[in-house]
Amino acid sequence: MNGSSQVQQRHVVVVGGGQAGLSVAHALQKRGIRPLVLEKNRIGYAWDQQRWDSFCLVTPNWQCHLPDFPYDGSDPEGFMVKSEIVSYLQRFAGFVGAELREGVAVQRLVHNGPGYRLLTSEGEILADHVVVATGGYHIPRRHAESPRLAASTLQLDARDYRNAACLPEGPVLVVGSGQSGSQIAEDLFLDGREVHLSVGSAPRSPRRYRGKDVVDWLDRMGYYSMPIADHPDPRAVRSKTNHYLTGRDGGREIDLRARALEGMHLHGRLQSITAERISFTDDLAVNLDQADAVYCRIRSSIDSWIAKEGLEAIEEAPYSPCWQPGPGKDPGLDLTTRPLAAVIWCTGYRSDFSWIDIPVFDGSGQPAHDRGLTQSPGLYFLGLPWLHTWGSGRFCGVANDADYLASMISQRLQRRDASQERLECTALLGS
Known about the structure:
- The structure is a single chain.
- This protein is an alpha/beta fold.
- The protein is built from nine helices and 21 strands.
- Strands 1, 2, 5, 6, 7, 8 and 21 form a seven-stranded mixed sheet that branches. It has a five-stranded parallel sheet with strand order 10-19-11-12-15, with helices on one face.
- It is globular and about 90 Å long.
């Protein structure tokens, strides 16, 4: 619209130009439907601007298979770094060739009769169908005690951290031990910084086991294609923290116990902050043990599957922890003798769908949907974690979800056209 006040009418509008939005645009175009894709920033923006410099995928490159556009590089067993991910997504956008408008933010989505009205930074658009493909991680969470930190202490969210050199000199506290927290703590530690890590309940995963990457085993076992409805507690699985491991250095495990032996300072959950001290709960040993228990269960499930299938695979010794927290209460961090240079909050994100003024959300503010279909006909969600399977929000599984939604949209448009044709014929005969 380029600043014009003219209201445009579209059959389908896709909000979000990431892997999910582009995937559904491709699936729709294969069915003869040309959607309009609106991207608030630019293709690849979040990967490029909201990840640290050494960021890379934790899943092997061979698992990157956007629809009709699989990874075609020279290192299928490797892990794409940030610049390669951005390039892959930008090349996919060129391959899809959808009508794409970058730099257009959708500020509000409301009903418009049987369809929808999108109020954007470039005016209004009317649509019969709207696919919301903006992901589920929008606003960083911070510990409730974060405002108590001194103004002289730099505070960053995970998405704003770039590298150790960008931080002031001095010790750094990383809060949260999920994928981002454990990898950022490692990034700082490998750069020679004094690192304190507040360890939570995030589970960890092996990297390689019995001769293969664990992702390879779990893929063969059907874990990544398992529908969420087949899990014992579907609601719980959506809220689970991702297992920590890394694709760095060719792919390896992250063993926080080993890092502690090397000099990283591990603490339990952050409890309180005063001007003089940061205190932690005494749950470090429990949190490490629980992470190891998940690690061992994954190995055990692979062992069972190998035995069931009668496969030959190298044997590996049982896991044995290399470090244990010392006895006694954690004294915490004395800020009077050793002030922190920075605190990096890796405590997760919450969704923000406040711009959608349509009652399709549950009590927690999350979209209520069945594989992306909502109770409001013509409104869909795509790319959410565990929309249908583990891979729904990832390069490996979004294609299946996109194809499913495109099929539903196509059927609904066909039924509407057929109904309109019948009405027109009835009116003609009546005249």
